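Fold this sequence, please.
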Amino acid sequence: MAWLLLFSAGLMEIIFALSLKYNEGFTKLWPSVITACSGIGSFGLLMWAIKTLPLGTAYAVWTGMGAVGVAILGIILFKESVDWYRLASIALVVAGIVGLKLTDSH
C-alpha cells in the first residue's frame, strides 16, 4: 500500500511541476488551482507513504519519479532536446529508482 501511495505522490509531483509551466506565475486561475492541489496532494501522499517506507528511499523515489516524468514530458510536450546524454541520464535515474525499490523490504 505504501508503494502505491508513493507512486501516486510521484504522479502528482509530475502534474505539479508541469502545471507550473502553464500557470504563468499564478496569473491563470485553473492552472494555478491545479498547481496548488497537486502540490498539496503530492506532499500529503508522500507524508503518508513515509509512515511505512524508509524516508531516504521514499524521498529519492518521489523526486526521481518527478524528475524523470517531467524530463520525458518536456521532450514530448515542449520539444526539449533529445540527445544520448539526456536519455542516458534519465535511464540512470530510473535505474536508481528500481534499485531502491528492489532493496526495500516493504
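Residues 2 and 52 are 6 Å apart (CA to CA). The radius of gyration is 15 Å.
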